[in-house]
Amino acid sequence: MQNTSILRRTALACGIALLAAGSAFADASYPSKPITMVIGYPPGGSTDLIGRLVGTELAARLGQPVVIENLGGAGGAIGAQKVAKAAPDGYTIMVGANNEIAIARLINKSVKYSIQDFTPIGLVASQPMVLVASQKAGVKNTAEFIAAVSKNPGKFSYGSSGVGTALHLAGEMVQEQGNLKITHIPYRGVAPLTTDLVGNNIEYGVFVLSSGLPQIQSGKVIALGTTEAKRSAVTPDIPALSENAAFKNVDIGSWFAMMAPANLPKPVQDKLKKALADTLASADFRKKLAASGSTVMDQKVDPRKFIDAEIAKYAKIVEFAKIEE
User: Fold this and answer.
1) Helix/strand/coil for 207
2) Measured distance CA(45)–CA(49) in Å, rounded
């Protein structure tokens, strides 16, 4: 009996050793097949554009194809949920925006994942949003905007691309910081919002900078200010809202990060992080980002700490505005 017990223990130990060796070999050989990059939106949007740029660079650096899977719905949350539930082997990753990574769970009780279900690979890029006025509004700058809205609380409206989006939260932050009252009108995307602003059917709107630039440059809408703490290097002629004392604490942007499922083995993490870091250091990649209105984020910032701080910031806005889907 004693010999049998010893044999069993020996066999178990050998089995565990073989599994560990197999896992280590798999990590060392990563990637040995194509990688799927999930984008939680249809083709053509800012997240899709940045994801595809990153995917092309990763494929060249990792020596395996990066296959883009556009899985739209629920403001990016459907795609994010798929990644959260995927095997932590490095073959399912995502480039996501703050909407699905940091905001969705705050406003939608049906979202089943949290930030703890992901391994942050790295912060990729950011771009500010921009508060614009239609020609109908009759204002040309932030001071005139504040004066008009203060005199007529609740009379005017601003549009965003939907309830609980970063654009919506930016509009609510402007209201909170400026002690203003403006009615929020949620649209089903940027296109119908643009139509109503250009057609003078609504006074104000919030765009991601890259989406609003064509209308700003054509003079069809007036840029009142960008939403990050400092002016964007892409549009240095547009002031930041924070330059007005009433909005000195307005600092909210649209950002993108590369994420993988939680419990990703460190060797796999390290390979993905190295490939991403090399991509973001590329002058050609940065030039392509700038053309889309985005800039590479500070790579000295810890992704987990950054995202946790963003969630805390968004939670305060959601509570102020009582946003819920």
Assistant:
1) strand
2) 6
